[in-house]
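Chapter summary example: a protein plus 2-acetamido-2-deoxy-beta-D-glucopyranose.
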Amino acid sequence: MGSLPYFSVLLVLFLCSSYFFVDGQNLPFKAVNLGNWLVTEGWMKPSLFDGIINKDLLDGTQVQLKSTKLRKFLVAENGGGDNVLANRDSASGWETFRLWRVNDSSFNFRVFGKQFIGLDASKKLVATSNSPTNRETFHIIRNRGDPFKIRIQASNGLFLQAQSETVLSADYQGSTNWEDSDPSVFRMESVKTMLRGEYQITNGYGPDKAPRVLQDHWNTYIAEEDFRFMSENGLTAVRIPVGWWIAHDPNPPKPFVGGSLAALDNAFTWAQNHGMKVIVDLHAVQGSQNGNDHSGTRDGYTEWGDSYITDTVAVIDFLAERYGNKPSLGGIELMNEPKLGPNLDSLKKYYQKAYDAVRKHSEMAHVIMSKPLDHGSKEFLSFVGSFNGVVIDVHYYNVFGNQFKNMNVQQNIDYIYNQRASDL
Ligand SMILES: *[C@@H]1O[C@H](CO)[C@@H](O)[C@H](O)[C@H]1NC(C)=O
């Protein structure tokens, strides 16, 4: 997502099912999505991350580590559940570790099989723990002149060293002059900061700074003036992405911070003042439904499934209860862009229960179901047909791919009429 052309369009189409019409709603809505307001998507405003120390080492950043002495990559044998060695000439999955940030300079390393690197009783490195504790927490010390040269201090206070290709241990004492021949010196290669979402920004700033940074952002990024502008220019609705933590405001679980609920309350007031509707869209669900920045994920794994249904329905219930009787409520979207692989049945189960939760509080609100990104439309259409007042949300990215590269605005719009219309 890093190289989005600036004037590109994500075409979001809301299809209202034809057999149903909601009285008193001025359809169709002409709406815009207020992305990056209450759920951070870093590519829209990268500078929000500028104040984070070690801002290239956010949660989910993927790193590969090479012993400078042995010139070998560290590897979690078998992808995890086994020893960590220093014997690989090249790096791919088993040699790539995802960071979990503990604070500015302490991290956990999550391996391919999702275990965490830690110390065993003899101070050898293993990747066997499924949840990080002190033994799985490491302090990264960067060389000032060459910040990708590092030393790694374990919870026992000693430094990791690659004694040999098969002995990687946390038992090196003392200082360094950063010579390549020092077995306690490693090089971070191919540092890929893949994610800049709400988890990354809140945990990156940490509990002392994040509340201020986020509150300033919420206060300034969207204001009533924007609703006036949109309304004067013919828009009739906004779609507002929210995260699951909004239901726990003002004290959401760490690292998320409170305050987004008050911002959403304001949006409803402003919408009403300017004759607009609000579509509340649950963008980020616990466990993550697609691994993207805007799903609130920590490290990019998609883990939403059956065990999260109850909690996710509770978030919808919370939103429907709070806004169900507001005249400016246009609809509630149950989950943005699910991409759950074979877990389609969990999604259907969830959609059914979340639909019921909305209807408990509102007969009128549209209930919006996002078509799974990785499944065809036909099966989904027949599923949705059994509900009342449901809208299908399909996303056509009129941006990625070579055919869009040289299009002007009119050509891009024509593409929608000529190429997309028949799908719809
Ligand atoms: C960061 O976390 C580590 C491990 O829990 C702890 O030892 C260290 O004191 C923390 N540093 C700061 C600055 O909070």
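Key point: DSSP finds seven helices and 19 strands in the chain.
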